[in-house]
Amino acid sequence: MSEILLGLSTVFQPFNLLLCIGGLFAGIIFGALPGFSATMAVAVFIPFSYVLEPASAMLLLSGLYCGGVYGGSIPAILLGIPGTPASAPTAMEGRALTRKGESGHALALCTVASSFGGAFSALALLFMAPVLTVIALKVGPPEQIMIAVFGLSVVCLLVEGNAAKGLLVGFFALLLATIGQDPQVGYQRFTFGNLHLYAGISLVPILIGLFSFPEVLQMLETDGEGFSEVNEAGKLYLKANDFLKNKLTLIRSTIIGVVIGIIPAAGPDIAAFLSYNEAKKASKKPEEFGNGSVEGIIASEAANNAVTGGSLIPLLSLGIPGSAPAALFLSAMYIHGLQPGSQLFTRDAGTVYTLMVGFVVINVLMVIAGLLFCKIANFVLVIPKSILATMIVILATVGAYATNKSMFDVLQCYIAGIAGYIMVKNDYPLSPVALALLLGSMLETAISQTMVMYPHNILQMFTRPYTIVFALLVVISFAWPFIKKRMEKKEGKTS
What we know:
Layout lengths: L1 H10 L2 H19 L5 H8 L8 H18 L1 H6 L9 H12 L3 H36 L2 H12 L1 H5 L4 H14 L3 E2 L6 E2 L13 H20 L24 H16 L5 H15 L11 H25 L5 H12 L8 H4 L1 H29 L7 H20 L2 H19 L5 H23 L11 H30 L1
Antiparallel strand pairs: 1-2
InterPro entries: DUF112_TM
Keywords: Membrane, Transmembrane, Transmembrane helix
Protein name: Tripartite tricarboxylate transporter permease
């Protein structure tokens, strides 16, 4: 307790508090710009941390990390462009609410859910790091296979009522994920001699084009018809029972985010889709998903922000980063002479407890900072539709280029955008593309590593307890839609 109080006093020193707030705002801006990300925000500011004390440097990077993950939801809601891949489920629900003239409601929901998820994960980091690290140690390639398959099972529910088209889209996207270098033997596949495809297709430009261009083209088609005018731009509000009715969704999604966060190679994007899927399965009104579901926004945002604290749990305890920004944290720690592991909590207790307490404070401050930022950003909806469409195309182009500083990425973005528009016009869902591209490479790498572990019989992976647990979750996930239908039929007969 004395270490926690010491960390609290350090965080609330005026200079350190200013770093927390400044990092938070800078992170939100990075996350809100399509093509930028929390990883990029942390990477850009690491050199500036050299001149700071270790505790102050960790607080600055923490603000950037948390703000970057949250910021991606703002363009997702207002423009239908996920600022980061983790905001793709939010884009589906948030944009639908914006079309109804409820952008302020969607932004407020997202801000509070993000703050709750992040604060809960920070408390888990503070009080449960040694215990939760045990889970991270038990998760290897076999478990990652089951996690990826579990994630892909989301497709069955995301496209409920249009399963054939959804599965076809998901299968095709998995094929696209195989483009590039084979993870086991290293030869090139489906690159056709194009050097730009040797590392595979670029995820961020594809998602930017896929979600933004259909919006732009539909906007130009209708000349703005069908888009609710926002007469009171900047008005943010919550309904009294938003979180009371959805408290189980909020808690469940936050726990999913923390658990996914501590698993290396997973991340906020996987957590967002998994929790979105679980929310839809448990919902009493699944038909609202895709049409502006409050549950969908809460689930997605609570989970992807809960990853932030979770990803630092194996980092601080074992030196194993749970996400890309956490890997940058590791390099920053080494720069400042901090060695992850058990000694970190004794030899550098002041710094590490400042970091953990700072994570809690930053996520609480996110409510205020986020609402202020959203109030300004919401004014984008009063811009004439022709100008707004042009701005979206420019932002998408710059975001696609900024990912790898490559015009080929811009080309990928445009191709994905045109394909997305054709899909929307023919009633093919876009979400399976995002999900399959996110999980495809993880699944293939995990399968390759598992085959090395069990060269004679890959089914031996089911001798591992955690693999069995995740396999049972996969079975339940695939079976749940049928179980739910039978339950509904029985309820209909009894009534």
